[in-house]
């Protein structure tokens, strides 16, 4: 009779690597190896090895994460069946490993110690690769650039980075707005893992969690973890209290600056609806600028989409065999991207593809989106933090992240909409749209949320991409108001590769929130951790001809 935990493991495995055919090798598993850290703390790891001789020798793969054996078991076993020796380690303070878990803060020193230890073991195969998604990708970034600079003999020989980034502060405070749904949802998940509360954990994957839903509505933000997890959680308190990404708490765990130091081959895979997408593509651009562009795949996936695991594994295996075992090159181009709207894969020489050109499209007071200059006027709407503008679709940690119909959402009084006339010909966007909005608020602080939708002839307005920017407040940056109180606010939207068919319209929404994806802005400009008073905001968008509000769309001609 199978146990509940076994059923949970099988369910998670089925979602992670759907459709993967097992490799030819039998495997052996040694559980709970003790890996010593420099301070004497021991971290637990499993060693999964192929049975028999593997020729040519394949790299030893290091996977480091905080989610326990069941989160890595399927991937580690699949890699071992392909001939790789795999060490799957649990981070400090998680799942039996010694010490206390402080998210991100210990991963560089522990990762460096682990890599040095691996190369001294009798089962080491001669080279090291790293592999894994999300936090397991962050642990790769934490060591790769630093070791390449200071200890190249022990640095990883290749990286496989799946839906990840090297600076979790940048996503926690996204352009000044607190990513409430991700931060509080992840905190609750990790708290339940630590307490081995597996049934609530599984149920939260299947339906909305009532405690989490209630916590999203709590003010001040510093009380949310108590509602979601029955008590304060140290790192969540740190997150909400530190709005400035220049705070040492955040800078010490950011590894963005060391990305160009990575000289090992890098494979990246992500999705258009992944929570880390813009930052991962900017890391790609950093390496490309250094003359070492990674191999890149961008598909129609969110962070935990069932269809992501198979390509991530199979393409990583081919990549590692090519670079570290003289295997064949299986890619026609360095970039493979899925064109949404056309539902087609494209092989590209680079990202963004050559020829993508920013075209300015102006917001008119009539609601028109046009390349023609507007003739003045102001669009007004009211934002009420006690009835915050809701999030509709978009990137999340849930399986259903992705495009949703915004038609009903756009009828809200706190959402303004601008649309093109029906397009005469298909139009493809490839890159990061940038909105430049002349904006004024009646309160000291406000958020500007901008979304592009594909408006179908039948009235559906399907999500394409979006972005947010906080104006005013403790950590917000940006231009000062002019003599009329307007600010020229720049909002960079999520990268996209989307085809608008002829007869469709390009739609742009502007609002002042997307709750609970982002915490609502109370309007007072007070610290987010303690702000409990809310104020309604009267918002204005200027269509003045001289400094017209617009959005620059990266139009690409295939």
Automatic annotation (TrEMBL):
Keyword Cell division, does the record have it? no
GO MF assignments: dipeptidyl-peptidase activity
Q: What ranges does the record give for the region Disordered, renumbered to this chain?
A: 374-407, 513-546
What is an example of a Pfam family matching this protein? PepX_C
> Which segments constitute the Xaa-Pro dipeptidyl-peptidase C-terminal domain?
317-552
Q: State the UniProt keywords alphabetically.
A: Hydrolase
Q: Which NCBIfam families match?
A: CocE_NonD
Q: What is the protein's given name?
A: X-Pro dipeptidyl-peptidase
Q: Which organism is it from?
A: Catellatospora chokoriensis
């Amino acid at each position: 009779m199978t146990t509940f935990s076994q059923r949970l493991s099988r369910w998670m495995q089925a979602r992670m690597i759907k459709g993967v055919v097992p490799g030819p090798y039998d495997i052996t598993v040694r559980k709970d190896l003790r890996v010593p850290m420099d301070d004497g703390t021991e971290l637990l790891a499993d060693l999964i090895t192929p049975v028999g001789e593997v020729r040519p020798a394949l790299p030893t793969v290091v996977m480091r994460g905080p989610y326990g054996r069941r989160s890595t078991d399927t991937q580690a076993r699949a890699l071992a069946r392909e001939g790789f020796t795999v060490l799957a380690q649990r981070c400090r303070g998680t799942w039996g490993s010694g010490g206390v878990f402080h998210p991100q803060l210990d991963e560089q020193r522990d990762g460096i110690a682990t890599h040095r230890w691996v190369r001294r073991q009798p089962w080491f195969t001669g080279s090291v690769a790293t592999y894994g998604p999300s936090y397991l990708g962050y642990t790769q970034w934490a060591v790769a650039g630093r070791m390449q600079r200071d200890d190249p003999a022990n640095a990883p020989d290749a990286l496989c980075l799946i839906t990840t980034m090297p600076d979790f502060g940048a996503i926690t405070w996204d352009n000044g707005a607190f990513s409430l749904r991700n931060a509080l949802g992840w905190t609750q998940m990790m708290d339940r893992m630590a307490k081995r509360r597996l049934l609530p954990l599984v149920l939260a994957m299947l339906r909305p969690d009532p405690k989490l839903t209630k916590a999203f509505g709590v003010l001040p933000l510093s009380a949310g973890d108590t509602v979601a997890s029955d008590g304060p959680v140290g790192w969540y308190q740190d997150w909400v209290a530190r709005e400035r990404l220049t705070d040492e708490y955040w800078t010490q765990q950011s590894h963005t600056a060391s990305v160009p130091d990575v000289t090992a081959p890098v494979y990246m895979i992500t999705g258009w609806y992944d929570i880390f997408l813009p930052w991962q593509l900017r890391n790609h651009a950093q390496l490309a600028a250094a003359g070492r562009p990674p191999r890149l795949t961008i598909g129609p996936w969110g962070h935990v989409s069932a269809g992501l695991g198979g390509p991530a594994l199979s393409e990583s295996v081919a990549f590692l065999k090519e670079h570290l075992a003289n295997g064949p090159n299986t890619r026609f181009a360095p970039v493979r991207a899925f064109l949404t709207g056309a539902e087609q894969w494209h092989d590209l020489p680079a990202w963004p593809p050559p020829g993508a050109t920013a075209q300015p499209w102006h917001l008119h007071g009539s609601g028109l989106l046009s390349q023609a200059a507007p003739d003045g006027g102001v669009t007004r709407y009211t934002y009420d933090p006690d009835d915050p503008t809701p999030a509709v679709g978009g990137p999340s940690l849930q399986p259903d992240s992705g495009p949703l119909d915004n038609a009903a959402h756009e009828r809200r009084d706190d959402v303004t909409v601008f649309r093109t006339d029906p397009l005469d010909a298909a139009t493809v966007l490839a890159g990061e749209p940038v909105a430049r909005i002349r904006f004024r608020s009646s309160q000291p602080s406000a958020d500007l949320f901008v979304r592009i939708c594909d408006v179908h002839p039948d009235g559906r307005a399907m999500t394409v991409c979006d972005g947010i920017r906080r104006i005013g407040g403790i950590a917000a940056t940006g231009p000062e108001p002019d003599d009329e109180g307007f600010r020229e606010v720049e909002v960079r939207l999520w990268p996209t590769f989307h085809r608008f068919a002829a007869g469709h319209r390009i739609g742009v929404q502007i609002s002042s929130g997307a709750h609970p994806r982002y915490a609502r802005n109370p309007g007072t400009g007070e610290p987010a951790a303690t702000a409990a008073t809310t104020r309604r905001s009267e918002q204005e968008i200027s269509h003045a001809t001289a400094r017209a509000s617009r959005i620059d769309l990266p139009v690409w001609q295939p």
